[in-house]
Amino acid sequence: MQIKAQPLTAENFAPYGDVLETAGDPDKIINRGMCGRFHDRAKLDFGPDGRAGISLFRAIPRDIPYVCDLLERHPDGSQAFVPMSMDSFLIIVAPDAGGKPADPVAFVSAAGQAINFHRGTWHGVLTPLHEPGLFAVIDRIGDTPNLEEVDITPVTITI
Ligand SMILES: NC(=O)N[C@@H](O)C(=O)O
Ligand code: NI
């Protein structure tokens, strides 16, 4: 199967998670007028037994077309990917169909956008498209594995 990644927007990503971006006016002007705060823009969820963690990922950029043959989800918490460079990256998600992923959907972010997968969202692993592939990842730290992985029929993704 081949799919084309669509531009990432808050609307088209809403079934899967949140898009973090400084679009429009800030919610608050702070720091004596020197900073706009886009306040509380993601639904973070770490479950009753977990806690929030920030990790840094340095991932190898992928070439396009990109073949995705694995999806995963985190049943116990959300996961946010925040690029530490002004580069686009590839986001692959899929609706759930009886505990397995349905056909995937792909998005490509604009520079300056970040995402937060809601708890349990089927997704491809972090997929940078440019060096340095450096991201801050905010997700659940806890005692459970919090990871379900599923091999899928390979999907070729273009942009
Ligand atoms: N496993 C891990 O830390 N990362 C994955 O969850 C991922 O989505 O990249
Ligand atoms: Ni993940």
TrEMBL record:
The lineage of its organism: Bacteria, Pseudomonadati, Pseudomonadota, Alphaproteobacteria, Rhodobacterales. InterPro entries: RmlC_Cupin_sf (IPR011051), UAH_cupin (IPR047233), Ureidogly_lyase (IPR007247), Ureidoglycolate_lyase_dom_sf (IPR024060). It comes from Marivivens niveibacter. It catalyses: (S)-ureidoglycolate = urea + glyoxylate. GO terms for molecular function: ureidoglycolate hydrolase activity; ureidoglycolate lyase activity. SUPFAM superfamilies: RmlC-like cupins. One of its GO terms (biological process) is purine nucleobase metabolic process. It holds the Pfam family Ureidogly_lyase. Keywords: Hydrolase, Lyase, Purine metabolism. Transmembrane segments: none annotated. Homodimer. The keyword Lyase applies. This is Ureidoglycolate hydrolase.
